[in-house]
Design brief:
The chain is 9% helix and 32% strand. It folds into three domains: 106 residues, no CATH class; 358 residues, no CATH class; 54 residues, no CATH class. The protein has a ten-stranded parallel sheet, with helices on one face. It has a ten-stranded parallel sheet with strand order 7-10-17-20-23-26-29-32-37-40. The chain is built from nine helices and 50 strands. It has 603 residues and is mostly beta strands.
Length: 603
């Protein structure tokens, strides 16, 4: 080992001064020239051995950990203990951490820390979990470079902390067919996630499938017989867990599946076993933008929850936002709270999804999630969206797209005042026992009696079944059973209820038990149309029709006979008080009264 400068030029006793040994000097000089050329140093090991009396600023060239380090005196015991992977603080060999440390320079406290500094592997070969956790522990902002990062452990963000990647979602196509939603910065959660989380009271809601036993379920045994929301009282794993005001930006988050190339295949396998990709847990003002949480997440690509954490705080998850994201899993998006809240829960008011693509499982084999064609079939059908729990209101989806291969487009349990604006829903055909089943396009809106005021405005859909609440759309081909599973107390879908055709437009009744009313400010009838077509005025009023005298009706040159006259036109003769009906369009066509049939002939 090369001797230090202090050893080579050590002072001897004054009576016999020490003479440095020239080979030691040459060896030390060679080492110095090799490792401190232009104030650079090749590794942390060498940096730790540097004489801090001689060098105070050095540029570390170790791959992935490059940066300027400065020797800073002071007590860095806490920082050194926290930064065991030496991304920002490095202890010198011969000096106690209480006396100083090598400290990374730059504006990283503002612009963010890089997981590579802590030993993360951007090639996706080695596990980067420890490095990612270290970066998150030491940086208020974390910035990933482009690359692929394996992570075998969950990552929890503190309040106000944000993690960034590079670029945005993109499609990568396979050969000869197939595609995957790719991203320049990929975080792959690998192995089996630790099932360490629960949400007390967030139990499953079950609705029987009236199409159980039909042909599209031929390879699903009984697994397709019931629709279910997730049961979060059973322990589950989660990848990223968000704090209040925290966020993820420009990241692709997946369960690992041969990198992501497994999603391009057509075999029967599933990705590594993780339940939830991103979890916004009591995370008021959370933000996820231009991210993808994609793949075989066993419960949800994104879970948003408000529930008691036992921290003495009122549960709340308000004003969260997802912008320009793609969510795909067993449920693409899951929004949940306990089915019965004890005490207070402020819920989700102001939560908003903007320009998001939300999808069900979409297994690469083209089969349903419940199909025996999958190596481990799911116990119930997959869906794009599930929402259920107390204080579930005030949530908006703007320009959202819900596309499903499985049976559930959206499952609404206990839900109120949720709005979809300019959104689109679509269902795909499925395979059964290896072959595409013709005409099998279809998915459902599942709604319970506890679903009240879920509104779809400026809506469009294809092959999505809103029945039994309203008439099934003719594009749905999957279900032979006449009845659907939408038993909502109130739901509005203007794609169904506001008709727009070439020759006419107007409101449409959703069922033959429904009428149409105009109400006054006191919620009393002004006018009513019954489902059999009867028009009923209020008891305090009646019809007001055009009024003319006998002389005016008799005058062929009067406007009543020359403008807007048609067969069946009705007016009131104010001279006689009798209602008159036009017998034609001509100016001379007679008017006949409703009382005796006597005619008035215009001349």
């Amino acid at each position: 080992m090369v001797k230090t400068a202090n050893e080579i030029w050590a002072d001897g006793p004054s009576t016999s001064p020490y003479e440095p040994y020239k080979p030691d000097i040459r060896e030390w000089g060679t080492w110095l020239e090799d490792n401190v050329r232009g104030n650079t140093i090749a590794s942390r090991t060498l940096l730790k051995a540097v004489d801090t009396d001689k060098f105070s600023i050095l540029y570390l060239t170790e791959s992935g950990r490059e940066g300027v380090f400065r020797w800073v005196t002071g007590n860095f015991s806490t920082q050194i203990a926290a930064d065991t992977l030496e991304g920002i603080y490095i202890k010198a060999n011969a000096i106690a951490s209480s006396a100083g440390a090598w400290v990374r320079q730059g504006d990283w406290a503002i612009s963010g820390v890089n997981p590579l500094w802590f030993g993360a592997d951007a090639t996706g070969v080695a596990d980067s979990a420890a490095a990612i956790r270290a970066a998150v522990a030491l940086g208020r902002t974390v910035v990933f470079p482009r690359g692929t990062f394996l992570c075998s452990l969950s990552v929890t963000l503190s309040d106000g902390q944000h993690v960034y990647g590079q670029g945005g979602p993109m499609l990568t196509f396979g050969t000869p067919s197939g595609y995957v939603y790719d991203h320049p910065t990929k975080i792959l959660f690998s192995g089996t996630g630790t099932k360490e989380h629960t949400i007390a009271g967030a139990t499953a809601t079950t609705i029987a499938n009236p199409a159980a036993g039909e042909g599209y379920l031929a390879d699903s045994s009984t697994r397709g017989n019931n629709y279910k929301t997730n049961d979060y009282t059973v322990a589950f794993s989660a990848g990223f867990i968000l704090g209040k005001g925290s966020g993820l930006h420009y990241l692709g988050i997946y369960p690992e599946f041969d990198g992501i190339s497994g999603y391009l295949g057509s075999d029967n396998r599933l990705a590594d076993n993780w339940d939830v990709g991103i979890w916004a847990r009591n995370s008021d003002w959370w933000l996820v933008e231009n991210c993808m949480s994609y793949g075989h997440w066993r419960k949800a690509a994104l879970l948003v929850s408000s529930h008691d954490l036992g921290d003495g705080k009122i549960p709340s998850n308000e004003k969260g936002r997802a912008v320009g994201c793609h969510f795909q899993g067993f449920y693409g998006v899951s929004i949940r709270s306990p089915e019965t809240v004890v005490g207070s829960n402020w819920g989700f008011a102001g939560t908003k999804f903007e320009d998001c693509d939300i999808r069900s499982l979409f297994h690469q084999s083209g089969h349903l999630a419940t199909s025996s064609a999958i190596i481990t079939p799911f116990a119930s059908p997959s869906g794009c969206l599930e929402m259920s729990g107390d204080t579930m209101r005030g949530i908006k989806f703007d320009n959202a797209t819900l596309i499903g291969l499985d049976d559930i487009c959206a499952f609404f349990g206990k839900v109120e005042e949720t709005f979809f604006n300019s959104s689109y829903q679509e269902a795909k055909t499925t395979k059964v026992s290896g072959s595409t089943l013709a005409g099998s396009q279809g998915s459902r809106i599942v709604g319970t009696a506890n679903t009240n005021r879920v509104e779809f405005r400026k809506n469009a859909k294809y092959a999505v079944d809103f029945s039994s609440y309203q008439t099934r759309d003719s594009s749905v081909g999957r279900y032979a059973a006449a009845a659907g599973v939408n038993s909502s107390a109130y739901m509005f879908d203007d794609d169904q209820l506001e008709t727009h055709y070439n020759t006419y437009r107007g409101p449409r009744l959703r069922a033959n038990t429904e009428g149409w009313r105009i109400l006054d400010e006191d919620n009393l009838d002004i006018f009513r149309v019954e489902n059999d077509g009867r028009q009923i005025p209020p008891t305090t009023g009646g019809y007001v029709m055009p009024q003319y005298t006998t002389a005016e009706l008799t005058n062929a040159a009067h406007a009543v006979n020359t403008t807007g006259k048609f067969l069946g036109k009705i007016v009131l003769n104010t001279t006689t008080g009798i209602v008159m009906r036009a017998n034609g369009t001509a100016t001379t066509a007679t008017w006949r009264d409703f009382l005796s049939g006597n005619a008035i002939t215009p001349v």
